[in-house]
Amino acid sequence: MAALIDAIDVKRKSVFEIENVPYACLDVEVSTPTARGGQTLVRIKMRNLINNAVFDKTFKASEKFKEPDLVLVPATYLYSDNDGSYFLDQESYETLNLTTAMLGDALDFLIDGDAGAVAQVQRQPHRPTAPHLRRVEHRPHRACRARRHLQRQRHQGRAP
Question: Strands, DSSP E only, in 83-123?
Answer without folding.
Answer: 84-89, 95-98, 115-121
